[in-house]
Structure formats: C-alpha cells, structure tokens
Amino acid sequence: MTQPFKDAVAMCKTILRNGFDAYVINSRFQQELERGGSEQEVEIATDMLLDDLIKLFPNASGPEAPGEVGVIREGGVCFRFHEVNQMETAHPEALLVKTTQRLQDRAKSLREDKSSLACPYIPAAADMYEGFADMSEGRVRLAGEPGLTLKRNLLYGIRALRFAANYDLPVEENTWISIVRSAQRILDYVPASEILDEWRKVEAENMWRFVQLLFDSMLLHGLIPQLAALSRLQHIKNESGVEETVFDHVVQVMRRYPEELPYDWFGTVACMFHDVGKLFTAENYDGKWHFHQHHRVGAQVARKILSGFRMPPEDVDLICHLVRHHMRFQYMLTERGARRFMALEEYPRLIEINRADIKAREGNYTNFNHNMKLLEKAKTPEEMSEPLLNGNEIMDFTGLRPGPAIGILRDALLKAQIEGLVSSVPEAVDFVMSHKDKI
C-alpha cells in the first residue's frame, strides 16, 4: 500500500473513532489508477458533514464537485470526501459508494491514452478478452471496478467462469463476489443462446470444473435447477457403503470421461445429465435410496432442459440417447445382451460413460471386464458363433458314438464356417463326413 492510501486509511480510522462511517472507495481500483498516472488523489466516502470534517481536519476545505463533502490537500495529495447514501429505502448496492465520476473519467482517459499510443484507430472487431484484465496475472479478473464492469455486460460473468475452467485459473476475489452478487441478474437478462455459446467453448476436459464453478456461484441453481438439486440427494458410492451426493458423483464422472475419449463435448454433457433423473425417481425404503428407471426419466428431463437452451435438435437427440441407455452396460450381459448392446448407436460412448462411472465411484470392474470380453466375442457374426450341426446331428450323419471325436468334429466345423469354407447345412454334412475318418 502506497503512502497516500496509508494516510487515507488513517483519516478513516480517525473519523470512525469519532462516531462516523468512512472508508476508502474501491482502494484496489484507485491504486491501479495511481500506477497509471502522475496525479495523486484518493477518494473517501463518509457520512460526516463538512463542519464536522473541519473540526477533525482544520485544513479541510469545501467541496469542488457535486456529491463531495469536502477536500483535504496534504503532502502533495488531494483527499476527496464523498457523501454516503443514508436513505433506509435505498437499494442495498446504492448504499455503498463503489466509484465516483472523477474515478470513471480518470479510468477512461487512461484507456484512451494507452490506445492512442498504439494506433490512432481502434479496430471494431470484437475482443474476446474485452472487460478482463491481463490473464498473465495468473487469475481471472474483470477490469476496473468488477461490479460496474459486470453491469456493463452481464455475459462477462459466464465468460469469467469459462476462462477460469479452460485456463485452470482462480477467479479474483472481487470479481467472484461480483458474479455471485449478480447471479440473478445474469440469469434474468443474458439470453439462453448466449449462455450456450459460452458453454460450447468450454473444453470437454474442463467442463467438470465449469459446472462446479456455476454451482459455487449459485448460477447453476437458476440455470439448471434440476442438476443443482442433486447436491441435496445422496446415494451409495460403492460397495464400502460410503455415501456421496449425486451432484458430486456427476462432477467426477464428467472429470473422468474425457480420459478415454478426449475432446468429446457431447459425451461429457451426457455425463452431466446421466443421473438427473434420480431427482424425480428417488424412493427410500429399507433405509436405502432407489432410483428405478432414472435413465428413462433423465433422458426426458435432459431433453426439456437442452431444448430450453435452443440447442440443435440433432444434438439434443444424441445427448438424450446417451442418457437413456447409459445403464445398459452396467449389468453383466449375456451373449445375446451384448449383441443387442452393440446394435445401439454410439455404443462406444456408452462404454466410456460406464467406465467413467466406475472410476468416479472407485468401484470394481467385474461386470465391465466380463462385458468387454463378450463384446469381442459378439463381433463374430451370430451365424458363426455356433456350428451348423450340433452334436446329435453329427452323430446321426456320421454314425459315430458319443465321445471326444464329436467335440473335435464340431470345433473343426465351426472353424471352417468362420473361414468361409462352409456356409450351408449340406456343406456342413459333407464336411463332417469327409473328416470323420481323420479323427
């Protein structure tokens, strides 16, 4: 803190000790402006009147601009005191002086000076980082006074969270509280289409962090309340019996999914909605929560939510398809079940949703590994999975008695079918007849 601001803080303490309120107006913003120019001024807010100010500081003089209480010049620094709104019926934010006309004019002139040094013409192309301080600071910060910058464009609130997620940077404290404070305004005035546009720019690998930031800032509660409500619902994490909130589980599944399918934005969004149906199907009996048919219900809920964001119908169909069928791979499949699963569109994505679910739960892979082996077997055409002649038929045609020879002939026939040497029952009969003497 520079000496002028230390002196300003000392003045505020003197005023406070005498029964009045006083504080330096947006000290961080003022110190930034001080670094940008040579003029030494500090703006202070107080409910003290000029007469009382003169009693404490005899060198105080009258106001020089509207809204000022008085001015003190001392040590080459000008301390300007501004009125505090004391009306009980005022809007809460109007009670706190966050900036003054002089501060705004100084900030504007400083920006104009810097831009004119670079070039006399400012291109009209939109700047993705407009309204934000340099990211080289190692954090995401709204330029100037965060609250006012955010009011100028409420979409900055969503964009700040997108930057924080994609660049893995913290959100600067004053910027963060401005977003939290303005959450309802953002939801009221930012069109859903613009929110979706920002959301689409979040990388799949970082979407879990973006959703967590939306939740922490209270934006998710208004944006997708069905998803935020999962934080109030618990389920069993794994066989150890440990419980976790369904929302925490969803975030972890989103985090794990891109490990196997990177850059898959749609698959990650499907992970975000895969358990949203649990909110509507939750039923507790015998001391446990049950969520029967949550995948079906979840697909319908997801469709309504995504359609509200004006997402293209084909994208909505894809995501809802993944939500609808995400449970198919969790159970130990039969060979027939594996073939039916492989007939589903996007089944590789469904496999990875299940893998991510197991990772998030820290569960076991028994069913998963069994199903993966069945899928390998199911890749063989169904007509090739069994020989055209069974054991009894082989004995009837060859006249052989039950014994190991029948099994050997059966395996040889199946191998011939797979290799394409046999494709019909008559060919199968000829094959076993010609090979029985070789056994």
Summarize the structure.
The protein has 439 residues and is of the alpha+beta class. It has helices at residues 3-17, 27-36, 50-56, 101-118, 146-152, 155-167, 173-181, 183-189, 192-200, 207-216, 219-223, 225-228, 246-256, 265-273, 278-281, 294-308, 313-325, 335-342, 347-361, 366-378, 391-398, 404-418, 425-435; strands at residues 22-24, 41-46, 68-74, 77-83, 234-236, 243-245, 283-285, 288-290. Helix 6 crosses helix 10 (207-216).
Written account of the structure:
- This protein has helices spanning 3-17, 27-36, 50-56, 101-118, 146-152, 155-167, 173-181, 183-189, 192-200, 207-216, 219-223, 225-228, 246-256, 265-273, 278-281, 294-308, 313-325, 335-342, 347-361, 366-378, 391-398, 404-418, 425-435; strands at residues 22-24, 41-46, 68-74, 77-83, 234-236, 243-245, 283-285, 288-290.
- The protein has 439 residues and is α+β, with helices and mostly antiparallel strands.
- The protein has 4 domains: 3-111, Beta Polymerase, domain 2; 135-223, Hydrophobic Seed Protein, CATH 1.10.110.30; 227-378, Hypothetical protein af1432; 384-438.
- The protein has a 4-stranded mixed β-sheet with strand order 1-2-4-3. A two-stranded antiparallel sheet has the order 5-6. A two-stranded antiparallel ribbon has the order 7-8.
- A hairpin with a 2-residue loop joins strand 3 and strand 4 (77-83).
